[in-house]
Amino acid sequence: MKLFELGEWSLIDHLAKTLPIGDDAYVIPQKENSLLFCCDTSVDGIHFDRDIMSFYEIGFRACACSISDIAGMGGVPLYALVALGIPKDCEFSKVTELYSGMNDIASFFNMKIVGGDTVESDKLVITISVLGETEKPITRDGSKAGDFIGVSGKLGGSKKGLQILREDRQGFENLKKRYIMAMPRVKEGLILKDMVTSMIDISDGLVMDLYHLSWASKNGMSIKKGLVPIDEGASLDDALFGSDDYELLFTFSKDVSIPGFATVIGEVINKEGVFLDGEMIEPKGYEHFRQI
Fold it and tell me: Across the strands, what pairs with 132?
């Protein structure tokens, strides 16, 4: 069977039978806090487009994606390793620009880039491994029927911003920034970790990441379209199926009061799957090897 027939999620399900994977980061228990370890790869032409982004923006965004996995488990990033595959005809100044972007967002979160590797590659490939820490790791499988479903911030802006960038349209700077300068919700994750029963960062799209919570907990996720917070200029479709918003999606008990940056969008139910206004909605979002 070819990978385009299997798809990314089926591949991960198969690997999970022998490997301890399934959350945004691997949890390493310690005497006090737990360590979090994650890895994320960005590939030219798949995760970013050099025609519409500077090398600084590419580096910033690649590092943000890895930090967001730590945020999705209620942690703070500590250290990172960067493995860089880069064409031999790339200008040296572009490489320093790339690292400048990574260093800036790392410094913003008090994270240190402490090493890595560089190799020659036909295209630009950036792999960033991050070690983080948390007092209380939040996984995907903790929800129970009756919990509420919440999200931080607003959704859809990243997908719409990418579309505007590709169309080379003027204006819409806020939407463009939502895509190019993704900002992990570390602070929000630290606030939420003592309130929630499960959590994940929204990288594959709201519906797809709701399915990740559903599959992990064996519960259903029922949301209402009128409750979904949408970035100004974006559509409901962008909010439901657009990837790379890097907000936090979580579940919490009904007796918990969530902070003002978050919105209740639905409820956990006994029937596995994802439901929009009572109708089951198929998994749709970004999936490597194929789009579903």
Answer: 36, 77
Whether 210 shows a pLDDT value over 70: the answer reads: yes
Decide: 76 and 190 in contact? Cβ < 8 Å. Answer: yes
Selected from 1.10.3720.10, 3.90.650.10, 3.40.50.2300, 3.40.50.2000, the CATH number assigned to the domain covering 148-280 reads 3.90.650.10
Residue among 146, 185, 179 nearest 161 (CA): 179
The position carrying tokens 């630009």 is 124
Residue 284's pLDDT band (cuts 50, 70, 90):
confident
Measured at the alpha carbon of residue 66, what is the angle toward residues 60 and 68, in degrees to the nearest 5? 95
Residues 257, 141 contacting (CB under 8 angstroms): no
pTM here is 0.91
Which of the four CATH numbers 3.30.300.30, 3.30.1330.10, 3.40.50.720, 3.30.70.240 does domain 3-134 have?
3.30.1330.10
